[in-house]
């Protein structure tokens, strides 16, 4: 999943033209977390809402007891006990984040995390800092692993509760049945609300703030896809030229004569820039004379885009 925008420095470089504006977010990862850690859960603002089904169950069970409908009273109480025990057992799990450690001597794991028509996310940093994003996972660890006896007992209790309700509730009075259905409906509404919460956003917050220690992010808004692609290549450099070529071909699959010439020379220019040759993306006028007028115009436009990308990169 994409990383939430924290510590982003927006920059809008001078645009030579605008066709399909897109954004690039560069994430500089420095912190290498341990293989296993136990993040702290955020305080949930919805916790007070859990009092609603509890209070409703208490009130409805008390009403059933007042009218001496012990059948429905016992089923409401059984539901409270079984649900409470199940929540307690589930809550004893230790929230854990794990990821594989990289091999010793592993190179940097720089690369493109997410690619779309609107935004690119680039990760830069050692493999140990990038693995938590690409290969990490959240889980709950229980002391009863691997048998999970306590969870199995809770499952049996909930099954017994369900079967008992089917048999016993119809034997109660109409008022007791209404009370039972009321408590059931409120509990169902609360559980549906919990299921609708965006759990992935909570996990992303924990990943960024606690696991990755809030890495620095820089966001660039670029006016054309060509500017964006050249900028991505510059950010990923210095890197293996074959790897850069693969990224370039994936993002710019065009294979006409002009585009092949442009892509080959872009990689050559980037290699020069990485060796401290400051002249960047200067089009050789003697070479373009061999192209047709329309191709020369396109090539000049592409090189202007490349220079715009370089301007954004050096800033």
Keywords:
single chain; 315 residues; alpha/beta; 5-stranded mixed beta sheet; 11 helices; elongated
Task: Give a short overview.
This protein has 315 residues and is an alpha/beta fold. It has helices spanning 51-66, 70-91, 127-134, 149-168, 174-196, 199-211, 225-236, 241-251, 257-274, 285-288, 293-314; strands at 8-11, 22-28, 36-37, 94-98, 111-115, 119-124, 137-141, 216-222.
Give the N-terminus to C-terminus distance in angstroms.
28 Å
| Low confidence ranges | 1-9
Largest sheet: 5 strands, mixed
Computed structural class? alpha/beta
On the 0-100 scale, what is the average pLDDT?
A: 85
Overall helicity: 40-55%
Query: What's the order of the H and E elements?
Result: EEEHHEEEHEHHHEHHHHH
The number of distinct β-strands equals 8
Q: What general form does the structure show?
A: elongated
Question: How big is the Rg?
Answer: 30 Å
Number of helices: 11
Strand sequence of the main sheet, in spatial order? Answer: 1-8-2-6-5
What fraction of residues sit in β-strands? 5-15%
Helices and strands in order, then pairings?
Blueprint: E1 8-11, E2 22-28, E3 36-37, H1 51-66, H2 70-91, E4 94-98, E5 111-115, E6 119-124, H3 127-134, E7 137-141, H4 149-168, H5 174-196, H6 199-211, E8 216-222, H7 225-236, H8 241-251, H9 257-274, H10 285-288, H11 293-314
Parallel strand pairs: 1-8, 2-6
Antiparallel strand pairs: 2-8, 3-4, 4-7, 5-6
Helix pairs in contact: 1-2, 1-5, 2-4, 2-5, 7-8, 7-11, 9-11
Structural features, described:
This protein is an alpha/beta fold and 315 residues long. 54% of the residues lie in helices and 13% in strands. The protein has helices spanning 51-66, 70-91, 127-134, 149-168, 174-196, 199-211, 225-236, 241-251, 257-274, 285-288, 293-314, and strands spanning 8-11, 22-28, 36-37, 94-98, 111-115, 119-124, 137-141, 216-222. The strands form 2 sheets. A 5-stranded mixed beta sheet has the order 1-8-2-6-5, with helices on one face. A 3-stranded antiparallel beta sheet has the order 3-4-7, with no helix packed on it. Strand 5 and strand 6 (119-124) form a beta hairpin. Helix 1 packs antiparallel against helix 5 and helix 7 packs across helix 11. Residues 1-9 have low confidence and may be disordered.
């Amino acid at each position: 999943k994409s990383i939430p925008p924290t510590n982003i420095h927006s920059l809008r470089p001078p645009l030579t033209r605008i066709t399909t504006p897109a954004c690039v977010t560069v994430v500089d990862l420095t912190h290498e977390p341990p293989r296993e850690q136990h993040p702290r859960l955020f305080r949930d603002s919805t916790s007070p809402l859990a009092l609603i089904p509890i209070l409703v169950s208490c009130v409805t069970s008390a009403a059933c007891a007042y009218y001496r409908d012990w059948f429905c009273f016992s089923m409401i109480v059984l539901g409270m006990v079984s649900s409470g025990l199940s929540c307690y057992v589930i809550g004893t799990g230790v929230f854990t984040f794990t990821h594989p450690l990289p091999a010793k001597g592993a190179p940097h794991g720089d690369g493109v995390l997410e690619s779309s028509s609107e935004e690119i996310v680039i990760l830069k940093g050692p493999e140990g800092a990038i693995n938590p994003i690409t290969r990490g996972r959240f889980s709950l660890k229980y002391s009863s692993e691997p048998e999970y006896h306590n969870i199995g007992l809770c499952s049996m209790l909930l099954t017994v509760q369900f079967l008992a309700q089917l048999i016993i509730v119809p034997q109660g009075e109409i008022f007791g049945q209404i009370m039972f259905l009321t408590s059931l409906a409120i509990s169902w509404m609360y559980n549906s609300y919990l299921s609708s919460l965006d759990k992935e956003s909570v996990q992303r917050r924990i990943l960024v703030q606690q696991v990755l220690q809030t890495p620095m992010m820089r966001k660039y808004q670029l006016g054309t896809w060509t500017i964006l692609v050249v900028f991505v290549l510059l950010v990923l450099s210095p890197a293996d030229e074959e790897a850069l070529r693969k990224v370039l071909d994936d993002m710019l699959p065009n294979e006409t004569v002009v585009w092949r010439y442009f892509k080959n020379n872009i990689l050559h220019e980037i290699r020069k820039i990485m060796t401290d040759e400051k002249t960047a993306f200067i089009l050789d006028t003697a070479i373009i004379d061999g192209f047709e007028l329309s191709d020369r115009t396109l090539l000049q436009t592409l090189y202007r885009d490349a220079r715009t990308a370089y301007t954004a990169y050096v800033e």
